[in-house]
Design a protein that fits this description.
five-stranded parallel β-sheet; single chain; 740 residues; Helicase, Ruva Protein, domain 3; Rossmann fold
C-alpha cells in the first residue's frame, strides 16, 4: 500500500537514487526534481504529500523554492537537507516554514524517522487515521446527538452545498468540516481554512480574494484564499468575526460566483464549497444587526449543530479510549486503562472546552503518567478545577473543611470574574457584595486582580499578566553545548494549557518536566534528570521563558541546551520568532508571603527573597580585579527590559580554573568563546557588553532557576556571591514551607 508521495529535490544524482531506494523500501512513492523550477512544476501537477529539499540547488535556490512552495501550498511539509556547514541557513529555512532539517551526510535512520514524523505532524490527532476513503463512523461516539451529526455529515458529503456548523468552542467544528471535505467527490481539491476573527480590515480583502501589482510584463500576482480553494472547500472559521463590509463583499461573491482581484481586471470564477462555523447564534446576530441576513441565507443550505460534551457524556469513555490510543502511540507510552474513580471524575467534569479540552487533558496525562493505568492522581495534575459532581472521589484531597471551602470560594470568584470580563465592580454587584470587600477577598485568596481608575487594571493588562501562554508555531535553534562543545540544538513546540514546560529527549522521546524535583546537579549549571534522560544548562532558556511568561512548551533537545554565546539573547529572539499565543486558562503566580533565606549575611554569601508587588532581583559580588565590586538591580517590568538589560549578559569563568574547565569539556571539546575568560588582570578573550556584565549574568541565572517552581514569581530577591546551588536550596525551602 502506498503510504504517500514524496518529492525529492537535489542536484546530486547519488542523493536522488539513494533516497529513492530508502523511501520506496519504506512503502512511499517518489518523485524527483533536480532544481527548484522543476520541483514547482511537479508540486502543481502531482500534489506530493511531502518534500525533501536541498538548500544548494542550481537556479532557484532552496530558500526561494521553499518560500514559493509555502505560497502555493501552506499545508505541505518540507524537510530541508543541509550540507557544507550550512546549519544556520537550515535554521533560517525552518523559520520560513520548513518542517525540519536533516544534515548531510544523510543517516538512514534519521531520514526515515524524520519522514515518518512529518507525515504524523501533517494530520491532527483525530484526522491522523482519516484517509481519502475515510468512513463516517470515525466520528467517535454513539449518543443520539452524535448519531444525528453522523447522519448529516454523510448526507452533506457529496452534494457540495454550503454549510453552517454551529457549536461551542472545542466541540469539533473544524474536524467536522474537514471530514465533510474528505467525504466529498472533490476530496482531492484543497481544503483552505480562514480564521475570520483574526482578519485585519486593511488587508482582509486581498487576503481572501488576491491582489495584482504591476504591469503585464513584471506583474506580481498573489492568489487569495478563495482562488487557492479551487473546486475544493473553503472553511470560514468564526464567520461572525467578519466585518459588515466583508460580509457584503462575500454576499456578492457567493451570489455571482465570480470576483476580481484587487488591482486586476479579469473575472475569477469561484467553484469551491463554503463551510462556515460559528459559536454564536447567527440568527440572533442578524437581529442585533451584527450579521447579514443575506449572507446567512446563502451559507446555511445545510445546518449542522454540534452538541457540547455535557450533552453527550455517555461518549466520554469512548473518546478517552480513542485519545489514549492516539497519544500512547505518539509518545511511545503503554497506557492500558483508566481506573473507575478516574473515569468518574472524567465523566462528571464540566468540560467547558468540550472535546478539545478533554483531548488536551488526556495528552498531558499520557505524556506525564508513570504507570500504565490512569488514576485520580494523574487526573489531578491535568485538570485545574474539578467538578463538584465528583465530590465523592475528589474531596478526599482536602485535609480540612477550611481548606475545601477556600478552594471552592476561590474558583467561584474566578468564575464570576471571567463572566464579567474581570470588572471588579460588576463582579461585586453580581455577588451581592461591595467592591472593597471583594478586593480584600481577592487579596486574601491570592487572586491577582489589579487596579483600574486607581483601583483596577485594564482588562487587557490583566489578561496579559495572568493568561497561560505558548508559542504560535514550532521554532528551532542550533548551537554548541557549554560543557560538551558538541553541536546541539533545540526545537520549541507549542503545548496545550496546563502542561507546563517540558524538556524532551530528541532521540528517545523521554520527557523531563522543568520542575524543581528533577534537579540533579548544580555544578556550574543546572541539570535536570528523569529516569535515563537528562538535560544540562537549562537556566538560560528557562530565564527567557520566565520573563516572556511562556507557561506551556515542549523543548526537544539532545542532552544539553545550546549555550550560543553564553547568554539568553538568542532564546529571546527564538521566542519572538515563534510568536506568543495567549491561551484560555489562567496562569498561576507565586506571591512570596514572607522572607526566606539561605546563607548568612555576616559571611557575605547569601540569597533571600521577601514579599514584593513585582519580581525584582538585586545581586552584588566582590572579586579581586579585574571584576572588583559590582552590584545591579533588575525589576522585571517587561520582556523588552529583560531582553535589553539581562539576556545579553554572558557566562564568565576564571582562567585559574582551567583544569576544572577541561574536565567539563571546555578546554577540549567545548567552546571557550562561549565564556568570558578572566585572568588576574583583565578579560582575555572578548569585549564586555556591560561594565557590570558579570553581575547581570548572575541575575540571569537566578531568573532561570526560579522558574523551576513552575510559576511566575512575585517577590524581591537579594543575593551576594551565590550560585546555582544556593538558588536551588532556596527554592526547596520555599516549596517546603509553602506546602506547594
Amino acid at each position: 500500500m502506498d503510504k504517500g508521495n514524496i518529492l525529492i529535490v537535489d542536484d546530486e544524482e547519488n542523493i536522488l537514487s539513494s533516497l529513492e531506494g530508502i523511501l520506496t523500501d519504506e512503502g512511499f512513492s517518489v518523485s524527483k526534481a533536480r532544481d527548484g523550477s522543476e520541483a514547482l512544476k511537479i508540486i502543481k501537477s502531482k500534489s506530493p504529500d511531502l518534500v525533501l529539499l536541498d538548500i544548494w540547488i542550481p537556479g532557484l535556490d532552496g530558500i526561494q523554492t521553499l518560500k514559493t512552495i509555502k505560497m502555493l501550498r501552506s499545508d505541505l511539509n518540507v524537510i530541508m537537507m543541509s550540507g557544507h556547514g550550512t546549519i544556520e541557513t537550515a535554521v533560517k529555512a525552518t523559520k520560513l516554514g520548513a518542517y525540519d532539517f536533516i544534515e548531510k551526510p544523510l543517516s538512514l535512520d534519521n531520514v526515515i524517522s524524520t519522514v515518518r514524523a512529518a507525515f504524523e505532524h501533517k494530520k491532527p490527532v483525530k484526522e491522523a487515521i482519516i484517509t481519502s476513503n475515510a468512513e463516517i463512523e470515525e466520528i467517535v461516539g454513539n449518543s443520539d446527538v452524535i448519531v444525528e451529526v453522523k447522519r448529516l455529515v454523510k448526507a452533506s458529503a457529496n452534494n457540495h452545498k454550503n454549510i453552517v456548523i454551529n457549536g461551542e468552542r472545542g466541540a469539533g467544528k473544524e474536524f467536522i468540516a474537514r471530514l465533510i471535505h474528505i467525504q466529498d467527490i472533490k476530496k482531492d481539491m484543497p481544503f483552505i481554512k480562514v480564521n475570520c476573527s483574526a482578519l485585519k480590515e486593511d488587508n482582509a480583502e486581498e487576503f481572501l480574494f488576491g491582489i495584482k501589482v504591476g504591469n503585464k510584463k513584471d506583474a506580481f500576482i498573489k492568489k487569495g484564499k478563495f482562488e487557492q480553494a479551487e473546486e475544493g472547500t473553503i472553511f470560514l472559521d468564526d464567520i461572525e468575526g467578519l466585518s459588515l463590509k466583508l460580509q457584503n463583499k462575500l454576499i456578492k461573491v457567493l451570489r455571482e460566483r465570480e470576483y476580481k482581484r484587487r488591482g486586476g481586471r479579469g473575472l475569477i470564477h469561484f467553484h469551491a464549497r463554503v463551510i462556515a462555523s460559528s459559536n454564536q447564534d447567527l440568527k440572533e446576530e442578524v437581529k442585533k444587526g451584527k450579521f447579514k441576513d443575506g449572507l446567512l441565507n446563502l451559507l446555511n443550505e445545510i445546518t449542522i449543530n454540534l452538541p457540547s460534551l455535557k450533552e453527550r457524556r455517555e461518549d466520554i469513555p469512548e473518546l478517552i479510549s480513542y485519545f489514549i490510543k492516539c497519544y500512547s502511540n505518539e509518545y511511545n507510552k503503554k497506557i492500558e486503562n483508566v481506573d473507575d474513580d478516574a473515569m468518574e471524575v472524567f465523566t462528571n467534569f464540566n468540560w467547558q472546552g468540550n472535546v478539545k479540552e478533554l483531548k488536551n487533558v488526556i495528552e498531558h496525562i499520557v505524556m506525564t503518567a508513570q504507570g500504565n493505568v490512569i488514576s485520580v492522581k494523574d487526573v489531578s495534575t491535568a485538570i485545574p478545577v474539578i467538578s463538584m459532581r465528583s465530590r465523592s472521589v475528589w474531596f478526599d484531597g482536602y485535609s480540612s473543611m477550611e481548606e475545601a471551602e477556600k478552594a471552592w470560594e476561590k474558583e467561584f470568584i474566578i468564575h464570576h470574574l471571567e463572566k464579567y470580563n474581570f470588572d471588579i465592580s460588576k463582579t461585586a454587584t453580581a455577588l451581592n457584595t461591595d467592591r472593597l470587600s471583594l478586593t480584600r477577598k481577592l487579596k486574601r485568596l491570592n487572586i491577582a486582580a489589579g487596579e483600574k481608575d486607581g483601583l483596577q487594571k485594564s482588562t487587557d493588562n490583566y489578561r496579559k499578566t495572568i493568561l497561560q501562554k505558548t508559542l504560535k508555531q514550532s521554532v528551532v535553534l542550533c548551537g554548541h553545548g557549554l560543557h560538551s562543545g558538541l553541536k546541539t540544538g533545540l526545537i520549541l513546540s507549542p503545548l496545550p494549557p496546563n502542561n507546563g514546560i517540558i524538556f524532551g529527549d530528541i532521540s528517545s522521546g523521554e520527557t523531563i518536566p522543568a520542575n524543581l524535583e528533577y534537579v540533579q546537579s548544580t555544578d556550574y549549571a543546572t541539570t535536570l534528570k528523569n529516569g535515563m534522560a537528562s538535560v544540562k544548562t537549562v537556566e538560560h532558556i528557562m530565564a527567557a521563558l520566565h520573563m516572556y511568561g511562556i507557561t506551556n512548551l515542549l523543548i526537544k533537545i539532545g542532552d544539553e541546551v545550546p549555550i550560543m554565546d553564553g547568554s539568553a539573547a538568542d532564546f529571546c529572539q527564538l521566542i519572538e520568532d515563534g510568536g506568543i499565543e495567549e491561551q484560555d486558562e489562567i496562569a498561576d503566580e507565586l506571591p512570596i508571603d514572607k522572607k526566606y533565606m539561605i546563607g548568612d549575611i555576616l559571611t557575605g554569601r547569601y540569597i533571600y527573597i521577601e514579599p514584593s508587588e513585582k519580581f525584582v532581583v538585586n545581586y552584588s559580588m566582590d572579586y579581586p580585579p579585574p571584576i572588583g565590586k559590582l552590584e545591579f538591580t533588575f525589576a522585571a517590568d517587561s520582556e523588552k527590559s529583560f531582553k535589553n538589560e539581562i539576556a545579553p549578559a554572558r557566562t564568565f569563568a576564571f582562567i585559574k580554573d582551567y583544569e576544572k574547565l577541561e574536565e567539563m569539556g571546555l578546554g577540549s571539546g567545548g567552546k571557550l568563546s562561549n565564556v568570558i575568560l578572566v585572568d588576574n588582570e583583565k578579560v582575555i578573550n572578548t569585549q564586555l557588553r556591560f561594565d557590570n556584565e558579570f553581575v547581570r549574568h548572575k541575575i540571569l541565572d537566578i531568573i532561570g532557576d526560579f522558574y523551576l517552581l513552575g510559576k511566575q514569581i512575585k517577590g524581591r530577591i537579594t543575593a551576594r556571591m551565590t550560585g546555582h546551588t544556593e538558588n536551588i536550596a532556596l527554592l526547596k525551602k520555599i516549596k517546603e514551607q509553602k506546602h506547594d
